[in-house]
Amino acid sequence: MKELSLHILDVVENSLRAKAKKVRISILEDTRENRLELVIEDDGEGMDEETLKMVRDPFFSGQGKKVGMGIPLLDQLTRQCEGNLEILSEKGKGTTVRATFQRDNLDLPPLGKLADTLFVIMASHPEVELEFIHRIDDCQWLFNSKKIEEELDLTEENRGVLLPAIREWIEYQEEILKGGIGNEDK
């Protein structure tokens, strides 16, 4: 996968197949420590110990497919980027996937089209509460899909109009966080 946002989408799809009603995505960047941490937590069905042992095997899939490449590819990427992949799960209590990377590693792909990834999750799974936080050092932005929907009075009738605006707002927040807006040379 050429972008971290595609890894995020893959892990979140696993959460949704595990019947998660709430998913929290955290992207935590520390430039001083040269570290990027991606954490995806869900309240889905979780995995038993046997499944947890096999989840990194590319020839294992818990979804009835012949192979499951998402987690093995993320595991490989973390190791290539001098990081680590940790998966914590308990049957009936959900799963946490924590991937760490060295930020300046040449093998670390770009974050990618994060706004598109979050938009797809919100548009295709309106029943799921999506929490998101992106922090770079001491600056951050965050949102909760259910709070946004409540604030905007999002309904089935206006969903098609408002979701693209939410996507644009996410993109704008990412630009601000990365210093692309409001910090232009004058």
Describe the overall structure:
- The chain has 186 residues and is of the alpha+beta class.
- It has helices at residues 4-17, 49-54, 70-80, 114-124, 145-152, 159-177, and strands at residues 22-30, 35-42, 84-90, 94-102, 129-136, 139-144.
- It has a six-stranded mixed beta sheet.
- Strand 5 (129-136) and strand 6 form a beta hairpin.
- Helix 1 runs parallel beside helix 4 and helix 4 runs antiparallel to helix 6.
- The longest helix has 19 residues, at 159-177.
- The radius of gyration is 17 Å and the shape is globular.
Brief sketch in words of this structure:
This protein is of the alpha+beta class. Helix content is 37%, strand content 25%.
In terms of topology, how is this protein built?
Layout: H1 4-17, E1 22-30, E2 35-42, H2 49-54, H3 70-80, E3 84-90, E4 94-102, H4 114-124, E5 129-136, E6 139-144, H5 145-152, H6 159-177
Query: Strand count, sense and closure of the main sheet?
Result: 6 strands, mixed
Cα distance spanning the termini: 38 Å
Q: How are the strands of the biggest sheet laid out side by side? A: 3-4-2-1-5-6
| Mean pLDDT rating | 91
β-sheet strand percentage: 25-35%
**Topology, number of strands:** 6
Label the overall shape. globular
Order of helices and strands: HEEHHEEHEEHH
State the share of residues found in helices, binned by percent. Answer: 25-40%
**Would you identify the regions where 5 or more consecutive residues have pLDDT less than 50?**
none
Q: Helical segment tally?
A: 6
What Rg is obtained from the alpha carbons, in whole angstroms?
Answer: 17 Å
- Report the structural category: alpha+beta
